[in-house]
Amino acid sequence: MSERAKTGLPTTKAGRLRQLLAGPSPVRAVGSHDGLTAKLVQQAGFDAVWASSFEISASHGLPDASLVTMTQYLDAAAAMDAVTDIPVIADCDTGFGGPMNMAYAVQRYARIGIAAMCVEDKLFPKINSFADTDQDLLPAEEFALKIKAGREALAGGDMVLVARTEALIAGRDMEEALDRGRTYAAAGADAVLVHSKSRRPDEVLEFAARWDLDVPLVAVPTTYGTVSEQELYQAGFRLVIYANQGLRAAVRAVGETLRELNAAGTAHSVDGRIAPMSEVFALQGMPSSYHTKP
Ligand code: SPV
Ligand code: MG
Questions:
Q1: For the chain, how are helix, strand and coil distributed in percent, rounded to 5?
Q2: Whose CA is nearest to atom 10 of ligand 1?
Q3: Which domains, from first to last, does the chain contain?
Q4: 52 alpha carbon – ligand 2 mean position (Å)
């Protein structure tokens, strides 16, 4: 028996995530799209990596609209998982199809040790929740079949299944959002993510106040970003996902640097605003004896 097994510490990242979700403070995850950004998330001190469909799609130069395939998402999550010690929560959109697709995806993700999968109740092909367009939902009972299929495919495995309702995003009322959450929990979800594009946290806080199950809630405070992690935790949220701040920082930084480089015509012009090679070497895990000056 391993030392960890003897001490009762979880031996899998899924087990670790389950332990964190039951802990005294919110689990904090940050969006990522590759090994490097996942390492940055870990290095900054967060608890988990959110393998974001928005970020992974953007990293391919594509809209977050079910264009990237399941195996591309899986490869991206695997790359993040392979170089970090913290759990990866894979954003799996609508589960890549129907219940059979969901079951297959769960088996593939579980086999490589991904800690959690999150699936949402929009219609396939889905489009990002903040796109300025109407959003269509799958009937709750049909989505519950995907959760059920995922749970069965896990066959007792410890991967965490997060069911995400887009009811509020799609303009449905609070009652429906709560009913959907309850239906998904009954179908086997370990946690329920209620997404909102409100500028204020009131919507998700009302959801949490009326949530009557012992199933942890998940929040993505992108638009209602003034709310604190502590307020969310006290309301009942156990996982807080900062979904895309890293990618948006990179887009801004790279764009500005390249514009400056283009205007100046010397590499030196941007030296002051970019990381030295040694910093990247360190992130890559290059042996320190190889580190260099630039
Ligand atoms: C993502 O990061 O891909 C998410 C969160 O699903 S959101 O972009 O808000 O839909
Ligand atoms: Mg997504």
A1: 45, 15, 40
A2: 129
A3: 3-243 (3.20.20.60), 252-290 (no CATH)
A4: 5
